Amino acid sequence: MSKYYSEMGGLPGQSELLSSKAVFKTAYAVIPKTVMSDIVTSVLPHWTETRAWIIARPMTGFSETFAQYIVEVSPGGGSDRPEPDQRAEAAIFVVDGEMTIEFDGKTHALRAGSFAFLPAGSTWKLHNSGSVAVKFHWVRKAFQAVDGIEPPPAIFSHEDDHTMSAMPDTDGKWATTRFIDPSDVRYDMHLNIVTFEPGATIPFMETHVMEHGLYVLEGKAVYRLNEDWVEVQAGDFMWLRAYCPQACYAGGPGRFRYLLYKDVNRHVKLW
What is 68-94 written as a DSSP string? Predict the structure, then answer.
């Protein structure tokens, strides 16, 4: 059974040590789950009974292509005007609870493991009509239109609807669940789930043009970020700038899984 970490909130006790693996560097950042307490949340315009942990935002020396929120909507909460920016497309992944998204005259029911892609400029609504809070990741990105290529359509699916694609020569120990077809150039971003079985590795220092946001959904591992090895576990978030070298070793005892954002399918901008 798939697991999705969703135990954000609370506040450390006065007797807790201040030491932490939280780090903010030029090439990467690590925001551990212990940082995501009640006092670092934000409220959002036109949302009710909602709070958000904003774990990535475009700014100098940090994320350049995306913002990522962890959103908690209490029963009866939500928004009829969730997105204020007509340029912004949305990718949503639910980690706990149930909710609905109204899009193009149809209501879609989402639960833990559900994925939604909402095109830039579209009108949608999100509500929690259940009896418990719903928690989800919301990635916002300014869509890069391409002359002669039509805009991407909306997607509503669930992890159970997709077969994991194994990396070559790994015996299925390193695999990716892709919610968006990687060959479809209409989309300029992907939100995937990467799964490592115990003992699996990224066996080389990946160094490439894509910016990454990695949120650990399940398990633990040691992750190489530039020149450092960092221990990460479910609930931790990592940001990697373009060309930041990365590798991974999943030591177990269970699976190691993370939600992966990356920008794709576009020429680099020449300034």
Answer: EEEEEEEEEEEESS----TTEEEEEEE
The pTM of this model reads 0.97
pLDDT, one tens digit for every residue, the chain (271 residues): 679 999 999 998 999 888 899 999 999 999 999 999 999 999 999 999 999 999 999 999 999 999 999 999 999 999 999 999 999 999 999 999 999 999 999 999 999 999 999 999 999 999 998 999 999 999 999 999 999 999 999 999 999 999 999 999 999 999 999 999 999 999 999 999 999 999 999 999 999 999 999 999 999 999 999 999 999 999 999 999 999 999 999 999 999 999 999 999 999 989 8
Lateral strand order in the sheet of 220-225:
201-206, 246-249, 220-225, 228-233
- Rounded to whole angstroms, what are the CA distances from 248 to 133, 154, 194, 197, 198? 33, 32, 12, 12, 11
Show the tokens assigned to 72. Answer: 């908690």
Q: How far apart are CA 54 and CA 45, in angstroms?
A: 14
Question: The tokens of 42 are what?
Answer: 């934000």
CB-based contact 135:75 (threshold 8 Å)? no
Using an 8 Å Cβ cutoff, are 62 and 55 in contact?
Answer: no
Report d(CA 85, CA 192) in Å as an integer.
24
Which two tokens mark 128? 């929690």
Residue that the structure tokens 């997607």 belong to:
155
Closest CA to 236 of 37, 13, 36: 36
